[in-house]
Design a protein that fits this description.
The protein is an alpha/beta fold. The structure holds tryptophan (TRP). Tryptophan binds next to strand 5 and strand 8.
């Protein structure tokens, strides 16, 4: 990222007020157009997921050709992942919810990567015990979204390394150190684990093709901060005889304190709603959240509030408004001044508490089979 931009987005850092259109230009990705969305809607045979219609997913690479292939009978698989640095927060589930939508609508296999190695290398404050424990805890949360156990596979890096390594060997030889250094901004003190790591994030893109001995395209729904990894993947794919993965990129969901992303790295735990926060903590965080409200009730009634800068509106937008009607009602109420922030937060809290209850129950149900989804064996060597 050039230094004269006012924001920074890499897989290891999101900082500043991100101009997402500018970021798309800098990364050289394609806009997710109405036309593509309409096509996806036709293929999926029903309504699009709100993450698509509300502009949270806004960019892509090669989605059109992936859909061309699908229409011609070429099935693809889904891939997404999580670096287990702590408990998940609500916005971490979004990419998996979009994957679930694809899995259900199109009957597609899903591969999930849990990178307990990456987070140990990236965060000096984390112990191995912690990244292992969070890896498993995060996996329960991810599977609780509702994936079909028969179609869903997990690479838990430290437990799946024997299945990943034969392909990682091939991938790593194609990636020059100078590229990794430039793409991720690594410095002389960066540990060599992180230098190698990107090879492991690439492996799942090719793994099903390798395992089945035939070329199977891949679609990766992810935050746009992960794009640098997959630019590398795409550069080397054809040289290894695999299709380039297609990507669907989301904006980062803003933090509750008005920060660029709902991240907790270097900021207060109050910036995010963790899935393991007890109801009282959720209540406090939402009540203290940064809004687009005015200084006084009188002013808000007169001028209306500003949803675009509001972290509470961002939560409605990303998941808690389940229907388009509800989302429009909240947005218009906010803009017109009819809905005050306290009342809006109260309504949102009801939705959040209900969601946490459902999620906890689903999480308990998946625990039994979660570990059976972890891939441990490699396909036979080529
Ligand atoms: N690097 C990601 C993170 O820090 C984890 C990850 C691995 C991932 N594979 C992925 C994310 C594929 C999106 C898509 O969270």
């Amino acid at each position: 990222m050039p230094n004269n931009e006012e924001f920074v987005v890499t897989p290891y850092e999101v900082r500043g007020r991100v101009d997402y259109d500018r970021l798309r230009e800098l990364f050289g990705t394609q806009p997710l157009t109405e036309e593509l969305l309409a096509r996806l809607k036709r293929l999926a045979g029903g309504e699009l997921h709100p993450l698509l219609t509300r502009g949270i997913y806004y960019s892509h690479r090669d989605l059109a050709s992936l859909l061309d292939g699908f229409e011609a009978g070429r099935r693809f698989f889904l891939y997404s992942g999580r670096g287990p640095s702590g408990p998940l927060h609500t916005s971490h589930l979004s990419q998996f919810e979009l994957c679930l939508w694809f899995q259900k609508r199109l009957g597609l296999p899903m591969y999930i990567q849990i990178t307990d190695d990456e987070k140990f290398w990236a965060r000096s404050g984390l112990s191995r015990e912690e990244t292992l424990r969070w890896g498993l805890e995060n996996l329960y949360d991810i599977l609780a979204v509702g994936f079909d156990p028969k179609l869903t596979h997990v690479f838990f890096d430290s437990k799946s390394i024997a299945s990943l390594y034969p392909l990682a060997i091939r991938v790593a030889r194609k990636i020059p150190y100078s590229t990794v250094k430039a793409v991720f901004g690594f410095e002389p003190a960066t540990n060599i684990g992180l230098v190698f790591y990107t090879a492991l994030q690439t492996v799942p893109c090719f793994w099903p093709s390798w395992a089945e001995g035939t070329s199977i395209p891949c679609l990766i729904p992810c935050g746009i901060d992960q794009d640098p990894h997959f630019r590398l993947t795409r550069d080397i794919a054809e040289g290894l005889g695999y299709p380039k993965p297609a990507l669907l990129h989301s904006r980062m969901i803003p933090g509750l304190l008005g920060e660029a992303a709902m991240s907790t790295t270097g900021s207060s735990a109050d910036n995010a709603l963790f899935l393991n926060d007890p109801p009282k903590v959720v209540e406090r965080k939402v009540r203290n959240a940064f809004t687009g409200g005015r200084a006084t009730v009188e002013e808000q009634r007169r001028l209306g509030a500003v949803p675009e800068i509001c972290s509470v509106w961002a939560l409605w937008r990303s998941r808690f408004a389940e229907t388009e009607e509800k989302f429009a009602e909240i947005t218009e109420g906010c803009r017109s001044g009819a809905l005050l922030c306290g009342e809006c937060k109260g309504q949102l809290l009801e939705r959040i508490h209900a969601f946490y209850k459902e999620h906890d129950a689903a999480r308990t149900r998946v625990k039994e089979w979660a570990e059976t989804t972890i891939v441990t064996a490699a396909p036979k060597e080529l």
